[in-house]
Amino acid sequence: MSLAYTTLSAAITPNQTSFSVASATNITNPVFNTGAGITYLLVEQEAMLVTSVTGTVVQVQRGVLGTRAMNHGNACFIMSGLPADFLGFFPAIKAFTINQPDIAFQMPSQTVTAAASIIAPSNFFHLSGATGVTNMQPPTSALLSYTGSSTEENYANGTRVTIICDSTPAFTSGGGGTGVAFAATVVAATAATVIEFILDGSSGTQLWYPTRHST
């Protein structure tokens, strides 16, 4: 069975073990005594073990393979695969990297629509639309309305945010909106390209520093 991709049909909390997906293709009912049909899911930085599936409703064991059960927003991307597809899986161990997780395997968060002020749902996501962006809030629990023991830590200096641009937005310095401004203007991105920003406040002001200034 090859890897397949789908999305969450609604946001889920860390304690939720049943949820709907847009498509259950590649997600199968396991037979644990023989090992047949065992499926893992990867949602952002959390791995899950499928225990049953009925239609597009999936039952799972949360936070497996060394990962932690987390909040996930509506339309987050999901990758499904066999145990063999997750050999060598290296999770983000937040107990040791609380500000910027080590990332080996991660799926992007839900897609964000471009606007003057946006909130990063995680440190890896798609951005749709061509509206210019002047400010970006870092992915903190308070901004994302996540509560409880499994909330994400506040992000600090050195945080890296990777954005896949689905269209042609521009990132403009000078601020003017809500959240952290950009240190330099990035000309309109080429669709289907990636841009990264580093959060730094050593100049006295928190700013996002781009890894490129042009396409």
Write the layout of secondary structure elements.
Blueprint: E1 4-7, E2 18-20, E3 40-43, E4 46-54, E5 57-64, E6 77-81, E7 112-113, E8 117-119, E9 124-128, E10 135-137, E11 160-165, E12 180-182, E13 193-200, E14 207-210
Parallel strand pairs: 7-9, 8-10, 9-11, 12-14
Antiparallel strand pairs: 1-6, 2-5, 3-4, 3-6, 4-5, 10-12, 11-13, 13-14
Q: Any overview of this molecule?
A:
The protein is an all-beta fold. The protein folds into 2 domains: about 5-85; about 110-215, no CATH class. The chain has no helices and 14 strands. A hairpin with a 2-residue loop joins strand 4 and strand 5 (about 55-65). It is elongated and about 60 Å long. Residues about 95-100 have low confidence and may be disordered.
List keywords for this structure.
215 residues; mainly beta; 2 domains; eight-stranded mixed sheet
Q: SSE order in H/E notation?
A: EEEEEEEEEEEEEE
Cα separation of the termini: 37 Å
Q: How much strand?
A: 25-35%
Helical stretch tally: 0
The 3D shape can be described as elongated
* Residues in helix, %: under 10%
Question: Structural class from helices and strands?
Answer: mainly beta
In total, the number of strands is 14
- The Rg value, from CA coordinates, equals 18 Å
| Strand ordering within the main sheet | 7-9-11-13-14-12-10-8
Describe, in short, the structure shown.
The chain is mostly beta strands and 215 residues long. It has strands at 4-7, 18-20, 40-43, 46-54, 57-64, 77-81, 112-113, 117-119, 124-128, 135-137, 160-165, 180-182, 193-200, 207-210. The protein folds into 2 domains: 4-86; 108-215, no CATH class.
